[in-house]
Amino acid sequence: MTMSAHLLNAKFIIAFVATLVIESCTGAAIGQYNLGISSAYIVAFDHKEITFQNSEVSQNFTQGINISINNSFRFKESPFEGVFKMGFQQLYFSGDMGNLKYNGNSSKIILALGARYYFNPKIAGGIFMEMVNNLNFEDYRSKAADIYRYSICLEAQYLIFPKTNITVAYSRALYPLTSHYLIFNPINQIRMGFTYNFL
Predict the structure, then answer these.
(1) Which domain, by its residues, includes 180?
(2) What is the average pLDDT across 174-184?
(3) What sign has the CA pseudo-torsion 85, 104, 135, 171?
(4) CATH classification at residue 94
(5) Kind of pairing, strands 62-75 and 80-97?
(6) pTM of the model
């Protein structure tokens, strides 16, 4: 897909998620604000061949952790909940490139905006648009088009205790998908963890 096609897809998803957030704010004028913290274990992988400087890259294993603060608001008599997340993500990666072996880690700030739908008091599903710094903090270039990476995330959660949920999420990068970024931040991420709501 071309860059314009990826941007068009991203705009469509942003509009869709924004519609869900707005929908969550319709209905009764009284609702409940929730503040929580999430932690998750991450497994990341690619589904396409990666080449860098004319050498084929073979990824061994990419894993990491994600910690985020969750702000959400749900109006009464509405199954929708608007959600904004802000967090930190650390990934550890390794692999082979030609005759060389590589390994390292990358730190990311992640922002997510979306909505959840409650099927019943214990089970909910969500969709989020995520934005992550694609470059490490010391490599920022103010005019670069690839400073940020945009992803779509699907999430399922199940209430196991009054304020604690098990969460499973799948995140897929939409843009950019340049090989040298995928080496340390693969396209696909599966996250498994817990969310605890203070409020």
Answers:
(1) 3-197
(2) 80
(3) negative
(4) 2.40.160.20
(5) antiparallel
(6) 0.80
